[in-house]
Amino acid sequence: MDLENQKRVKELSEKYGPENIVVVLGAAEGEAAGLAAETVTNGDPTFAGPLTGVQLGLKVYHVCEPEIKQEVSPDLYDEQVGMMEMVLDVDDIISEMTSIREQYCKY
Amino acid sequence: MSLLKDKKVIIIGDRDGIPGPAIEECVKDAGAEVVFSSTECFV
Amino acid sequence: MNSVIKGTSYILAHAPDMVIHNGSTQTTERIVNPNSEYLVKLPSHIRSYEDALNYRPNQTYIGNMTPAELGEIPQPWYDKPMENGPRYGKFGEIMPEDEFYMMMQVCDVFDLVHLEKGFVADVKPRFTANPVISEDIAARIHDGIDISEIEHFVNEEHAEGLYYQDKLVGYVKRAHDVDVNLSAHVMHENLVSKASSVLALLYVVKNSGIDKSEVEYVIDCCEEACGDVNQRGGGNFAKAAAEIAGLTSATGSDMRGFCAGPAHAMVAAASLVKAGTYKNVIVTAGGCTAKLGMNGKDHVNKDMPVLEDMLGGFSVLISANDGVNPEVDTDIIGRHTVGTGSSPQAVIGGLVAAPLARAGMKIPDIDRYAAEMQNPDITKPAGAGDVPASNYKMIAALAVKQGDMEKAKLATFAKEHGMVGWAPTQGHIPSGVPYVGFLREQILNGEVNTAMIIGKGSLFLGRMTNLFDGISFVVRKNAGAAQAQEGGVSKAEIKGLIAEALRDFAASMME
C-alpha cells in the first residue's frame, strides 16, 4: 500500500479509535486485496511503510463483498459497482479477504 | 447490526478495480462518514 | 477532410542499472529500508540485454511480432523467450543501456552529461553505426573524461551516477546549486525522457519517409515536467527534442494528462491538421525512469526477473489526408468529463458507448479496441490484474447491458475485438497508442476497417483533483481508399500505393 495512505490509516485510527474505523478496498485482484487488508490489520507485509509492525486489526472489506453490498441501495450499487462485479473475480476476492479477517481482525 | 452506519470509513480504491469516488458513493449511501478516500495505481 | 496516420515508431531502451539507481520503488526503499532483503536480492533478478531482446512483448513493441502472434504464446511469457531476438524491428529498436547513455549525452545542451573516456571509446563506434544516428547527431558526442572527475561529481557535487553493468561510467550533474527543479535527479529524469523521445522521432522520420523540413509541429505527451523554480512545468520537451532530431521547421508544445496524454495529443494533432493549421504534426513521448522496477518487489518475491527494465518511446506522424492512409475520425470522440462520474461503467460509458451512440453505432460495430495495452506479465504478479483483459470485459459487459450484444458473446469479445497487452508499464506509453502502428498496417492491408483508441489517466495522483480522466477516438480506413476499392475506379492505383507503403516497411526492416 502506498506510504502516504498507510500514514493516513495510522493517523485516523489513532484519532477516531480503531474500533470505530472500517476500511473499504477496491482492489482489482484477490491477492492485492489480501495484501492491502493485511496491511491495515497485521502491518505492512512489504516492510516499507508506516504500518510496518503495526497491528491495527481494523475491520476491512472489499466493496464487492456481500457485507458491503447489502448495506447499499441496489440501484446505486449497480450504478457504481455493478459492471465491475462481472469483470473482477469476486469469489477469489471474498476468500482472500475472509482469510485475512479471520487471522488478524480484532473488531 | 449495521457494518457501515455511523462508522468512520477509510477508502483505498484501485484505478483498475473500483476507484475511491465510486466506493465513496456506496458507503455514504449506507450512512457512513468517509474520513479518507484515495485511489491507488499500479501501472 | 480528416487527417491521416502517415507513420509511426516505437522504441525501447534497456535500462537495468537505472532500475536499481533511479526507479522510484528502489530509491524510496533505500531511504525507508536501506538494509532490506529486497535491495539485496534485486541485482540477481536484473535481466541482461539479450534477455530483453528475447522477451517477446519487447519484440512485439518494436513490430517483429504481432499482438495476435504474442497472444498465441501461453502466459507467462518471461519464461518462454525467443532465440536470437533482433535489436531492430520495423517500428524501431531496442537500444542497449550503454548506447542510450550516449543518446542522453548528445541530447544534453547544458554540459550536464559526461561519460568516461574508455566508455566513450568503446560505445561510440556502435552508437554511430545505428542507421538513425546521422552525422549531425554523431558530431554532438563529447570526448570522455577521467573516472576521477566522475567520482568527484557523484560524491561531492550531488550528481546522479550513470552505471553500466554495475560500474560507474558517467554522470548527470545538477543544473543549479539551489533550485530543486534543476537538481541532478530531475535533470536525469528529463534527459532520459528527451533522449527516448528523440530516438522515436528519428525513427518516425525514417519509417514515414517524410522530409524533416516538412514537420511543422511536435506535441510531446510524456508525464515529466521541465522548468525552473519560477516555472516548474514550463516545458517544452517537444521543441527540445525536435531540435536534436533536426526538425528545423517545427515548433511544438507539451500536452499533459497522465496516461491519457497520448490520446489527448493524438486528438489535438488530428484536429490541427484537419483544420489546416499545420500539414504535418508529430505526437511524441519518451520514457520514464521513475517507473523502472515499479512492481519490482512483487517480481522478486515471485522469483521472476524484474520485467520493468525498459524505457519506452513512440512517435506518430499525423498528416493531411492523402486518400490512402487511415483517417483519425474526429467526429467520434469519447470524453470523460467533469460530470461523468468515476464508476468504471460511467468511465467506459463516456469513453466508448456515448461517442458511438452519437454516431449511430453500436459497440460491436468497431473492429478493434485498444485501451490500456499493459503487458500482463508485469501487472498480474503485482496484483493489478490483466489490464487490457479487464478493459475488454468492461466494454463487453457494457455492450450486453445496453443491448448491443448477446450475453453469449461476452467470452469471445476480447478475442474478436481486442488483443493481449505487450507494452511496458511506462504510464503514458501503454495507453492505447502502442496499437496505432499495427493498426495502420492492418487497415492498409484490409484486415481491419475501424478501431477505437482509448486513453485513460489517473489525474488523482497529482492531488489536485480526485477525478479520473479519459479520451477516445476512432481510426478508420481512408474514405478515399474505401470508395476507390468499392467502385473499382482506381483500385490498381490504391493497390500500388499500399504495396509501396509495405515495401517501405520491408526496406526499413532490412536496414
From TrEMBL, chain B:
Keywords: Oxidoreductase. The lineage of its organism: unclassified sequences, metagenomes, ecological metagenomes. It is an enzyme of class 1 (oxidoreductase). Pfam families: GRDA. GO terms for cellular component: glycine reductase complex. This is Glycine/sarcosine/betaine reductase complex component A. Its EC number is 1.21.4.2. GO terms for molecular function: glycine reductase activity.
